[in-house]
Amino acid sequence: MGSLTLYYVAVGDDGASGARIGCGDSLVPVFTGPKPLTDQFADTMRAALVDHSEAYGRSGLRNALAGSRLQCVSHSVSGDTVTVHRWRAC
Hints:
Shape: globular
Order of helices and strands: EEEHEE
Number of strands: 5
Number of domains: 1
Largest sheet: 3 strands, antiparallel
Number of helices: 1
Strand content: 35-45%
Distance between the termini: 30 Å
Structural class: mainly beta
Oligomer: single chain
């Protein structure tokens, strides 16, 4: 069992709720409840890419990957850092 961390955008938040990104927005981590995990990276990517809802509930957070047809083609893991080397639109 584990928890996944997904990131959503707080538009116009200017870094108040998370890391400041883009033109005054924030990247906000959202943690899932306990889930059975087989591969934390693959499970996280799957959860992020299958959610096609633009809004994250009623939180005001936005899903930057909504409507995306991306698939991770290659990645590497070094310690607790994952680097995605190549994406593919499918």
